[in-house]
Amino acid sequence: MKYQDIIEKMTIEEKAAFLGGRNEWETRAFKRLGIPSIFCSDGPHGIRKQAGAGDHLGLNASVPATCFPTAATIANSWDVELGETLGKTLGEEAMAEGVNVLLGPGLNIKRSPLCGRNFEYFSEDPYLAGKMAASYVKGIQSQGVYACPKHFAVNSQELRRMAMDSVVDERTLREIYLTGFEIAVKEGKAKTIMSSYNEVNGTYANENRHLLTEILRDDWGFDGIVITDWGASNDHALGVAAGSNLEMPNPGLDSARELIAAVESGKISMEDVDKRVDELLDAVMTLYVNAQGRKEDFDKNAHHSIARRAAAESTVLLKNEENILPLKKGAKVAVIGDFAFVPRYQGAGSSLVNPTKIETISELIGNYDLQVVGMSRGYSRGGEEDAATRKEALDLAQRADIVLFFFGLNEDSESEGMDRTHMRIPQNQITLLQELGQVNANLVGIISAGSAIEMPWHHYMKAMLHCYLNGQAGAGAVLDILTGAVNPSGKISETIPRRHEDTPAYRYYPSKERTSEYREGLYVGYRYYDTAKVPVLYPFGFGLSYTTFEYSDLSVDEKGASFTVKNTGDRDGAEVAQMYVSLPDGKVFRPEKELKGFAKVFLKAGESRKVTISFDDKTFRYWNVKTNKWEVEEGSYSVSIGSSSANILLTGSIEKSGTTDLLPYEEAQMPAYYSGKIENVSDAEFEKLLGRPIPDGKWNGQLGINDALCQMYYAKSGLARFVYRRLTAIKKKADESGKPDLNTLFIYNMPFRAMAKMTGGAVSMDMAKGFVEVVNGHFFKGMGKVIGGFFSNSRKNKAYEAKIKS
């Protein structure tokens, strides 16, 4: 062990306390041993270091920081160099604020467009997500700060996220939900990983040895530390044994006592504890040294300019009929939409950034060579009808040559702690859009949303810019694109389907009981739409430009694919060339094609360039559940180059030898998976995929320590059911107000055990178990445990503090 000398001096009480947070954001320091504290902070797209009391939901104000576009936005750039630049600026700001570990980026897979946290995640594709995440990690860690990719793993649902079991087969786990993390670890060299709230196949992620030891540490060679999501620890001792180092935020000393008791009983070994302490010491000591002599400020204007460049490169031009864009100089325009005055530029929840400044369309448009006939909010952001404002907007539209309509998802539509219930934009915005289209055919839509949305109204507009959530400098980026100062080059990193009912997980998402069954398997996003031949509105990887590109001269060899891209238009611009690989007549089922490489190429008008996309260890592999390792199937692989998953322009082939004759499946037993038509996978076929019986996720009326408070609907105690009704009423009222209460949402979906994990030691696990007994109808017995536990816990905490006081 690297820090054997320190570990030998530590008491077991110090070791156990060290493996849990001191408060909301910091680790414990031990002056006697020369062990400093380190500071963690949220920061997928901006630093959220709170100025006062800390809380994990972003309820209290944080210090000003640059709010960059969210991950869902930046992924549309397909630009790893941009990702690394953003990482460097994030790392620089973190260091300036005294933050040692930046909790991000988020790279969970967008299994369904309804996940409330999709704005924080890169893509529906693991290869793209992994490459972008690795670029962020490299940039962040170049500044002496550790990046913490999250949430590991299979965390694609906010509903009951702390009391939900992701049931997924091993192949899908490896190929779809872990590949992005693998790239972030192997290529990005991530030094920390955040374990997720949920169970994975019956075992909580934070105590899942298969995930944290067998895969993360043994297979991938991860040599850093695992940090729990805030409140994600279930059994701390099992977590330590499985490979988890730091329990956050502040579990109190009851958790440390639990760890000591586990060692004394033989449940885990002292060797397990010492390994985790050694790994955590390495991180703490390294980060402490890195922070010495740090600069305590950063160039806010320079970082704002980087945020603007990032927003511009990540904006996607979805439609441009009659080349209405870019706008001609002096064009007579009407600016309509509340988002033009108050932009929607980030999501809600723990990632909420307090920006250094915010650009707005209404304030900036006067700086451009446009004739603005007027500006109107047009609609109410909260969804209420406003006849006077609507009339004002329609009158303006009639006087303009072109209408710029700014619209999208409200803040309450996308948030940590809650999933969306549909894919629609508020109806009052769409009603106005339709009316505007009737009075002025030259309608340009500028959309703000963190995830895919239904667009049955898209034909009303001649042009559409999808900005996603483009950060504090988004307004300037949009105006630069609208006026032609910047040529759009973004490509969507997720499919935009025609309707929610067409999505692959429609019948399986969200989970109705305690288990979330991933019956769609590998068929996520374009993998499903392409294979099952389901029409979509805008395919994965799609995006227009103000210029045109031509592909030619494909050659494929053992190293990769080479081809020529030419800018055939009259404007300089960037193109994202995408490489997809498939095995048309394979004996192992797989999607029609899969992204295995990409390159963003900037070309001047008329310029040509040879582009090479190399093969790597992920190009031809699949996970074989019979051999329990990565294999290559023998055959003639198709290597396709295109500008999107639906626009393949060049195709070549390459022969590959197989690595095993042992095939994992029989086609006759798995017709849905061989056809890709997974809309109604039977129990029998899903069990064939899983290789085991489907677990029973139903609640049986007897609630346990890991059931969520919202499940008190099933409680035997009338008092508990009353509390459930009150909590539900509060949540409903907040939802209807258009401003979801994040604290209520967290409590609503929180399991009983979290009382003992997130109250700074005020509640012990025995007390939490007492509350469960009350809920289950044993009021006096349960309250006896709660009251007795309170005094016992308080006494034990004081005694423990005395033992570890430096």
Short overview:
The chain has 806 residues and is α/β, with parallel strands linked by helices.
Give an overview of the whole structure.
- The protein has 806 residues and is α/β, with parallel strands linked by helices.
- The chain folds into 4 domains: 4-290, TIM Barrel (Alpha-Beta Barrel), CATH 3.20.20.300; 308-513, Glycoside hydrolase family 3 C-terminal domain (Rossmann fold), CATH 3.40.50; 537-681, Immunoglobulins (Immunoglobulin-like, Sandwich), CATH 2.60.40; 709-804, no CATH class.
- Helix content is 32%, strand content 17%.
- It has 23 helices and 26 strands.
- The strands form 8 sheets. It has a 6-stranded mixed sheet with strand order 9-14-13-12-10-11, covered by helices on one side.
- Helix 2 crosses helix 9 (253-265) and helix 22 runs antiparallel to helix 23.
- It is globular and about 75 Å long.
- The mean pLDDT is 94.
